[in-house]
Design a protein that fits this description.
By secondary structure, this protein is of the alpha+beta class. The strands form three sheets. It has a four-stranded mixed sheet with strand order 1-2-3-4.
């Protein structure tokens, strides 16, 4: 699965934080944007609602429980979510007390548990390789991967932006299942080869383990090809719809609708299996399988519903222009002012989190609270604004008739929390994170 955790998240900026510099000469602001593009628009529309400018697949969703970094692969941090330990214990237990004693009788209980633990680790290693398949192709399309997280439902690659084209979406989505199917075929082929070449009881455990890994990887690959977003198959469906109607948000909404249907279907199948097991028509182990299907169906339904809502939000944002949201009162700083004067005469007086630096009508850079905070207090009277400001690029300026969705993308790409609005080469306003957040909070359903 791939989430585009996926998404640009918005933390509402507390502009009054800049006032804390008065008297104590230090700034206490919330750093929700510098170096954290994936958390750029968190908290938008209340709570942890997301504006996904990337995959909200199980390619990167928000997880509230803690997770721990265990290593890196392809330069990508690998994390283990707290829920992973629950499913690790469950898989180990089910193998140790059920599957392994049935297929390999007359072994000791500690050996069953040891083999179950090894098998569970190898199964999750397969999930990691599945996610690395997604990530490798995504990196080829210059899509940053913030991290890969192993959790209760498998794994998720947190992608920081959406694919640039339907072709990229299709290839990234197919890479994971393809890796799983290749692993499955290799494990099953290896099991057959070992059983044929080494037809001895001592190799039976290796054959059973390889067969188990092969079957699980094949099932993983096939299950993820179910055409319900945000599963990989749903992303393939979205790629096709996107190529067909040329509308990314509409394609996401339609693919998510299929995800809702499959989520309901899995839940109903799970419920039927549980009822049949309780009535005695099926084995008791079927009830556990039914419970998992209900659990997975509920997860798929919830993720698809969230993706559909996010697509609707993005569609609404494309119809809102920068002119409707921008701050018309623009206060600029001269580049040759000292940082001390900038603090006393601008940051403290106006309470803004940052100011554009202008000279003779040209935007030279931007000075934010974070930039001031990074400079030792004793140097404030001696350093000029132009020496500590961050120089701008063309991406720092935007036209007032562009959509706020485009503004948010520019902010994410340049790691800015504000953009200068230019019309006829004149500054007519500012568009800021906080202004967009306030607008969306006022207009949310």
């Amino acid at each position: 699965m791939l989430p585009t955790s996926e998404g640009l998240l918005f933390n509402i900026e507390d502009l009054n934080d800049a006032r804390t510099m008065h008297g104590i000469r230090r700034v206490s602001t919330r750093r929700g944007w510098v170096g954290e593009k994936s958390d750029f628009f968190s908290g938008l529309l209340g709570g942890e609602a997301k504006l996904t400018l990337e995959f909200p697949h199980c390619y990167g969703g928000y997880m509230s429980l803690p997770n721990w970094r265990i290593g890196r692969a392809l330069g990508i941090p690998i994390h283990v979510h707290a829920s992973w330990f629950v499913v690790f214990f469950f898989v180990t237990w089910s193998l140790a007390v059920g599957y392994l004693p049935e297929t390999l009788p007359d072994l000791s209980v500690p050996r069953y548990w040891g083999m179950g633990g090894v098998a569970a680790i190898l199964l999750f290693l397969s999930v990691l390789l599945h996610e690395l398949g997604h990530s490798y192709v995504a990196l080829r399309y210059h899509i940053p991967i913030r991290q890969i997280t192993l959790f209760i439902f498998g794994g998720v690659a947190h992608m920081e932006k959406e694919p640039p084209s339907p072709r990229a979406e299709f290839l990234i989505a197919m890479a994971g299942p393809l890796v799983s199917l290749i692993l499955g075929a290799a494990c099953l082929g290896g099991a057959l080869a070992v059983e044929y070449v080494f037809a001895q009881p001592g190799f039976q455990g290796l054959v059973i383990l390889a067969s188990l890994l092969g079957m699980v990887n094949v099932q993983l690959g096939l299950f993820n090809l179910i055409p319900g977003f945000p599963l990989d198959g749903g992303r393939v469906l979205r790629a096709g719809l996107w190529a067909w109607n040329r509308d990314f948000n509409r394609a996401t909404s339609q693919a998510a609708l299929a995800g809702l249907g499959f989520g309901v279907g899995l839940g109903l199948i799970g419920a039927v299996l549980m009822v049949e097991a309780w009535s005695g028509a099926l084995g008791e182990s079927t009830a556990t399988n039914g419970g998992w299907l209900i659990f997975i169906g509920a997860f798929l339904f919830s993720a698809a519903l969230s993706s559909r809502r996010q697509a609707a939000q993005r569609t609404s944002l494309t119809s809102v222009t920068v002119r409707q949201v921008m701050v018309h009162r623009v206060v600029t700083l001269p580049p040759d002012m000292s940082v001390q004067d900038a603090v006393d005469q601008y940051f403290v007086v106006h309470g803004f989190g940052g100011f554009p630096i202008c000279s003779e009508g040209h935007v030279l850079g931007v000075l934010t609270v974070q930039d001031v905070q990074a400079l030792p207090t004793e140097l404030w009277p001696w350093r000029l604004v132009r020496e500590v400001m961050r120089p701008t690029s063309p991406a720092f300026c935007i036209h007032p008739d562009w959509s706020i969705m485009q503004a948010m993308e520019l902010m994410a790409q340049g790691e800015w929390d504000r953009l200068v609005v230019l019309e006829n080469e004149e500054i007519v306003g500012l568009i800021t994170r906080s202004a967009i957040a306030r607008f969306l909070q006022l207009h949310k359903a």
